[in-house]
């Protein structure tokens, strides 16, 4: 779809109505083959692919709040696969390919819109890194182009490319297949499809302990009683350290607030997604018309789903630097989630030192785009007891072997 | 936004500070003697509690000195600040 066609319709006209009941909220049984801890996008996608790809349907998704009320409900929905390293390109591109067929597969509208992502370069080093990343992407079969400032302006006319600003736009990388989707619909689509295959969605059920006997996990303690499990798959995002700690497993994670904001509804002005690492902000325009903006984490560790206002102020001044046209837009709402950040800005997916206990975490500020891909690979890992080839590089032991997948900076703003 | 009581300057806005992560992480006495596991632990693993956390801050836009704080990461309440070199206070 060409940029802009979305906008010619009445904003919001193509949104389906709010669902009454898409899945049944189940009562916990006493035992399951697989218990998934965390009902965010990753937990739900994992449940779906366990059932669909592996025929494992005796599965419960345990969620301490309501389904997908964590980061899944709070992210800015950027989807792309233009990461630098082969390992990252592997799993993110797998995810992007799944996104491309996901609406049909789940039988549910996701408002997946491949409107492209621009990653701007503002310094010679930015330019060199970006061109290198474009070449790396192409070698991995990921669509990527290097654009001059004038070409940037063609893709997104409201970007200021004048040379007399503090951080002039020297060009940018463009991934046409990248884009956005509607996060809530993605969660509902996976939840509905998994529930239809027999998975139990158990809400308001907090896991408060993991039962480990002879080095093997045997079940979970919850606020709704103990539940036995042959296998336990963690997908608790910002709370992963806490949950893994119940089994004595420590993870190389720090939990930080990550904030985002939206403007009031505006006419369609922004046809793509623009990200800038140097002028730290990223901006897209949601289907209804809000400008959606975000940037980096709050520096201090915290489990509170809110951050400091000066972070929002910086984000907005960065946005104005790139888009002077936004000067009169008003902020409608700001919010935060708690994200689990690793030392190399890559996730941890795989086995743990405890048998039959699996971990998926560390997606930090950028795990929404991976949702179908990680669900696919994590389900394989849990079902077979062996890492899927695409998540094998993201094992916990890479911090001991030193084989990090360092996506800091390499992957532009990490969302 | 946190209001952080610098032990030298008093309460100041969070925007004046730089965060330094977990406090009291000592450099290994004999780095060459560490196993890979121990080295990984020193380099990459930090505590990440939901609750009391001893952490470092630098008052970069003020006195420019480092100090430690004990903060509850579940509420953001700062229970104590103390100068570098002082032991972590016991919080009831
Ligand atoms: C502001 C913001 C913007 C972002 N923007 C992007 C973006 O543009 N693109 C992108 O790719 N990614 C983005 N992300 C990151 C993305 O949201 C996360 O990486 C991803 O959602 C994590 O996977 P999840 O959906 O499973 O997490 P979550 O939705 O957080 O799911 C984890 C669930 O576990 C539950 N849980 C925790 N502890 C327990 C327990 N003890 N028992 C039971 N349940 C428990 C939580 O309640 C939560 O529902 C953003 C994140 C934020 C906060
Ligand atoms: Zn001071």
TrEMBL record, chain A:
Region described as Disordered: spans on this chain: 1-20
EC number, UniProt record: 1.5.3.24
The protein's required cofactors: FMN; FAD
Catalysed transformations (reactions): sarcosine + O2 + H2O = formaldehyde + glycine + H2O2; sarcosine + (6S)-5,6,7,8-tetrahydrofolate + O2 = (6R)-5,10-methylene-5,6,7,8-tetrahydrofolate + glycine + H2O2
Pfam families, per the entry: DAO
UniProt keyword Oxidoreductase, yes or no: yes
InterPro entries listed in its UniProt record: FAD-dep_OxRdtase (IPR006076), FAD/NAD-bd_sf (IPR036188), Rhodanese-like_dom (IPR001763), SoxB (IPR006278)
Subcellular location: Cytoplasm
Keyword terms: Cytoplasm, FAD, Flavoprotein, FMN, Nucleotide-binding, Oxidoreductase
Glycosyltransferase found in the keyword field: no
Enzyme class: oxidoreductase
Span of domain Rhodanese: 34-78
NCBIfam families reported in the protein's UniProt record: soxB
Family, per entry: Belongs to the SoxB family.
Matches recorded under PANTHER family: FAD-DEPENDENT OXIDOREDUCTASE DOMAIN-CONTAINING PROTEIN 1, SARCOSINE DEHYDROGENASE-RELATED
Annotated protein name in UniProt: Sarcosine oxidase subunit beta
TrEMBL record, chain B:
NCBIfam families in alphabetical order: soxD (TIGR01374)
Protein name: Sarcosine oxidase subunit delta
Encoding gene, per UniProt annotation: soxD
